[in-house]
Amino acid sequence: MSYVEVPGAQVPIRMWADPATVEGVAMQQLRNVATLPWIKGLAVMPDVHYGKGATVGSVIAMHGAVCPAAVGVDIGCGMSAVKTSLTADDLPDDLSRLRSKIEQAIPVGRAMHDDPVRPGTLHGYPTSGWDDFWARFDGVAEAVKFRQERATKQMGSLGSGNHFIEFCLDDTGAVWLMLHSGSRNIGKELADFHIGQAQKLPHNQGLVDRDLAVFIADTPQMAAYRNDLFWAQEYAKHNRAVMMALFQDVVRKEFRKARPVFEPVISCHHNYVSEERYDGMDLLVTRKGAISARGGEYGIIPGSMGTGSYIVKGLGNAASFNSASHGAGRKMSRNAAKKRFSTKDLEEQTQGVECRKDSGVVDEIPGAYKPIEKVIDQQRDLVEVVAKLKQVVCVKG
Predict the structure, then answer these.
(1) Low-confidence spans in the chain with pLDDT less than 50
(2) How far apart are CA 194 and CA 224, in angstroms?
(3) What digits encode the pLDDT tens for the residues 122-169?
(4) Dist CA 36 CA 67 (whole Å)
């Protein structure tokens, strides 16, 4: 489908979703965003749903301003995937050992490494820039400095919620490794701090929603936020890369006889800010629950823990600010999912997948998400499908 345009106060709201199917609170959030004086465009992805501060599945382009809540608290959250030389024929009948080995190598939930992971210990991991990255921690907000040790030990760990590690097969039987995570606790603490700072600024006092407080260009507050934002986005990228290296090491050991070879890793943020130029204007484009989909650019759009995921290639649609959805998108809240579904439902909906099937992950049940096939179909003018993946192992925090 092409987009539907809904009137907004400052800019029209371009929607790659049927407005009638979007929950009322999410539509109100979008209308609120469209009132911001600095906004130059707003694109809405088919996985759109209500989020804290700003709508998940929204792409907000602003001139001379940025809204930290429109990035989300998991700064730099995103996906990584890699195709391997392994095939379905290489897999054992029982995948529980593989899942266990992944969980041993990569801390999940609130867990972290006992000692910080050193890139030199990871097979083929580039060490250049690592020391410089950590040296720049000295320049982030004083309010989070006490978290440095925790941040170093959480590097290369999964987290909880909708974050996952998956061992997948594509339609040809090829094995893919895929994972979803972000900047862990340090990104959240930086986001919370800066959202609080923005809400105190005089120019934000008249906004329709205090969560939409912005920083304005050429101010000390904006400079401080940009510094911390881009550092946290880099942390998230390193975090996924370290996990992927640990994941590949597990696969090398478990499939030693097959001698697996790995293609280049595809990686993309879906909660972040980017400096981009449209119609001759330099803009700060915020994607919260959306990926960059420039022409020819590879991206990853995952489903839920029992459904398929997609490797896609961007079509470079400027109307969406060269963006696409970040996943299937929730159709009900976590609390609603817990009330609606049981562990028996979870077992049925994740049949054939080696994964947790206990009450702790019922809120992540496939039935709590929109159908991924429909979400993909609604953005055929934004991306083309390269591969469809189906997980056979899913690790959750």
Answers:
(1) none
(2) 9
(3) 998 988 899 999 999 999 999 999 999 999 999 999 999 999 999 999
(4) 10
Query: ∠ CA 26-181-378 to the nearest 5 degrees?
Result: 45
Burial of 67 from C-beta contacts in 10 A (0-12 / 13-18 / 19+)? buried
CB burial class (10 A; 0-12, 13-18, 19+) of residue 29?
buried
**Contact at 8 Å (CB) between 6 and 19?**
yes
Question: Per-residue b/e over 347-359, b at no fewer than 16 CB within 10 Å?
Answer: eebbeebbbbbee
Residues annotated as catalytic are: 326
Strand pairing report for 354-355 and 383-396? parallel
| pTM for the whole structure | 0.96
- At 81, which amino acid appears? A
* Nearest one of 252, 269, 238, 299 to 84, comparing CA atoms: 252
Strands 298-301 and 4-6: unpaired
Phi, psi (5° rounding) for residue 137? -60, -25
* Bridge-based pairing state of the strands 78-87 and 174-181: antiparallel
Q: Say whether 183 sits in a helix, a strand or coil.
A: coil
Quote the CA–CA distance of 91 and 109 in Å, as a whole number.
27
CB atoms within 10 A of CB 24: 8
Angle at Cα 166 formed by Cα 125 and Cα 266, nearest 5°?
Answer: 45
Residue with tokens 């609603």: 336
What whole-number distance in Å separates Cα of residue 294 and Cα of residue 18?
Answer: 24
